[in-house]
Predict the structure.
Amino acid sequence: MKKTSLSLISMLIAGAIIAGCNSETDQSSTNVVKGNEKTQTSEVLSETVVSEEDNINYYFTANEGGSISKINASTDEVENTIEVDGVVHNVQVSPDGKMLGATVIPGGGDSHDDTHGDDTHGDDSHQEDSHGDSHSEGAIGQALFFDIETNELLRTVEVGNHPAHFVFTEDGKYAVVTNAEDNNVSVIEMESLSVTHTIETGKGPHGLRISADSKKAYVANMNEDTISVIDLETMKEERKITVGSTPVTTAITSDGKTLVTTLHVENMLAIIDLETDQVETVEVGKGPAQVYIDGNNQYAYVANQGTAEVPSSSVNVVDLDSLTVTATIETGKGAHGVVISSDNKRLYVTNMFENTVTVIDIERNEAINTFEVGEIPNGISIMK
C-alpha cells in the first residue's frame, strides 16, 4: 500500500474516540490533478459535450490514498481513475449530474497509518493533527470541481482546515463543505465558484446533509455530540440538537421531518423528530459511520465500520416507523460510505479496510458484487 496519511476521522477522534491540471477525455486514461492548480470555467461551462456515453450513469468513490474512482453503474467496473495530490475524503455529484465535487487535504504525508477507525484516542484534551507532517498546522483544504463527462478539473476553491464532507444544495445554488479543524462550514456559491459565507458550527463538524428544499443544513459535530442546524437563507447556525456520543454524519427524509445520525461510540443510530428535537435510538453494528435514507423515507441504511483492529463488515437496515433493525447485510471490512441508486434498487458501500466497494440488491437485502477501487475508499456518490 502506498504511503498516505491518516483519515480525517482519525484526527477528529483523537478527542472523540473514533479512529475516520486538466485531465484526458479518453476514458481509458488516468487523469492527474494538482491540488493547487486552478483552471477557468467559462469555456468549459459554456459547452456541452455530447458522446455515446450520455445515457450511462456513474458513481464515484473518494479514495484517501489520493484518487477518485469513476465506476460505470451498468457494469460495476472502474472506468477511470482521477489521481489527486492529497487525501480525498468525500465526493458528491451535483443535482444536474454535470459536476463532481470533492474535498481534499493537500499533500500525502510522510508515513501511512492504516488505523482509520482506531478508538484508542480517548483523551479530549489531545487534539493533535494526525494527518502526517504535510498536514500539520496551516493545512488549508480544498474543494475541487470536476466535469462529470470529461473528468476535467474545472476549479480549485480554498476552504478551511481539514475539510470533511461536501454537499450540493438541491436547487444548485450552493455547495457546503465542513471544515473539521476550524469548527465551521464554507458555503460556495456555484455561480461564481467562490466561498461567499463561512458559518460557525460545533466542534469537529464532519458529515452533513441538506434538506430537499435547500433551506437547512444538518451538520454532525463529532467532538461535541451535537448536530448544528444551519439556515442557508440567513447563513447562520439556527440551533444545536444534542444527540449522543460522536455523531459522524446525518441524513434527512425528503419531507424534512425526520433526521438521523450515526453515533459511532455508542453503536447507535439516533432518530430525531425535527418538530420537537426529541431523540430516539436504535442499536446497530460496531462503529457506525455513514447512513443513507431510501427514496421512500422508509429505511435508513447504516454502514458499520468498526476499527482497523476489529473491523465491522455489515450494513444494518433500520425501519424508521418501527425503529427496528429489519436486516443485516454482509459487506467488506470497514464499511463506511453508503449511497442508494435513484431507482431504489441498488445500495453501494465503500469498504475502507480492503479497498473495495460492495453492491447490494435492496429488494433481496444481499450483496451481489464486491470489487476493488482506489486506496482507502471513503465517501461515495452516484449520478441521479
